[in-house]
UniProtKB/TrEMBL annotation:
PANTHER family: CYTOCHROME P450 YJIB-RELATED, P450, PUTATIVE (EUROFUNG)-RELATED. InterPro entries: Cyt_P450, Cyt_P450_B, Cyt_P450_CS, Cyt_P450_sf. The keyword Glycosyltransferase does not apply. Keywords: Heme, Iron, Metal-binding, Monooxygenase, Oxidoreductase. This is Cytochrome P450. Belongs to the cytochrome P450 family. The lineage of its organism: Bacteria, Bacillati, Actinomycetota, Actinomycetes, Kitasatosporales. The keyword Zinc-finger does not apply. GO terms for molecular function: heme binding; iron ion binding; monooxygenase activity; oxidoreductase activity, acting on paired donors, with incorporation or reduction of molecular oxygen.
Amino acid sequence: MPTDETFPFTPADPLDPPERYAALLRDEPVARVALPTGDLVWLVSRHEDVRRVLADQRFSRQAITAPGAPRLLPLAEGSKSIFVMDPPEHSRLRRLVSGAFSPARIRALGTEVRALADDLVAAMRRSGPPADLVAGLAQPLPITVICRLLGVPYEDVDRFRAWTDVMLSYDRERREEVVAARGALSRYLTRLIDAKRAAPTDDVLMDLINAADDGDRLDDEELLAFGYTLLGAGYHATTSGLVHAVLTLLRRPADLERLRKEPELLPVAVEELLRRSQAGGGLGALRIALEEVELHGVRIAAGDAVLPLINAANQDSEVFPDPAELLLDRTPNPHLSFGHGIHHCLGAQLGRMELELGIGALLRELPGLRLAVPEGELEWSSGLAFSRPRTVPLAW
């Protein structure tokens, strides 16, 4: 079935869902569009259907790594990342790595993350105004935490930040750059893993190296793939999510002031900011139908690509009353920003913590927080899985 419509859609406002989502939710819950690669994909937009696609094993993640398979992000063919595996391989990997991301371990990081967020915002206060939200907090907070988790020397941050920036581009013109960046990061992580085996350390990467269950272990390719996943999701997703959350609040001074006066509301408010966020778009959720499936009277054939639109599902009025509104105390809030089913994000608890503590530090330390430039002057990145402005100058 030919189509002239291409995805991703370009929103009129980068902080709001594309207008097309409302029409899809209302009139066309299963719609055919083209990807930048020219591949066709079925967009699934309603909350109930997105949950179904995310959880139904007839929609395969692993199949997108096959040679010639439709894909939106530049995944390696045959990737052994847990991000793109189906059971039973996914179940095996999840079992092996879950201990490294246990709730107790993440909670134990809380004091360190809070101190880091406070120190970063204090440095912004000393150097500004204006101070850049991205360089001052949104990048260094998650990337420092990931360095701590993986045991990566912080002096190497700029190198792997540059590699992962390129690797998460879906611009077809950058394919060679993507391959080169992946190779450079692979060589770096290989050396790091070898060094840890020679001199064991106390960090998540060492835990993954040692992880075993009845003699089963992660092989080197699986360790490398996990390193890619942590760097990409743990850094880029949180950086963009924090930027989107702060920009959303800056547009709403009354909400900003309410959170300053009621910091105990932050955990619930973070869930609503995640629901409302357009930082990621769920571009990595692409799947391939393994057999014929019917959704809303639409026949999805075996081999067809299917993309559950998480950001559209988070706007479904059947689940979220007044979905366009930011309701800081919205409960319940069954948003799908961290996915659903077996691929629910392992780092969800950490991501929530970083958003809560980062926003909390800004509110405490920078009274009168506001943009230092007109919002229209912000320069947004394009062609990346996680969108954000290059810089966000703040005043207070």
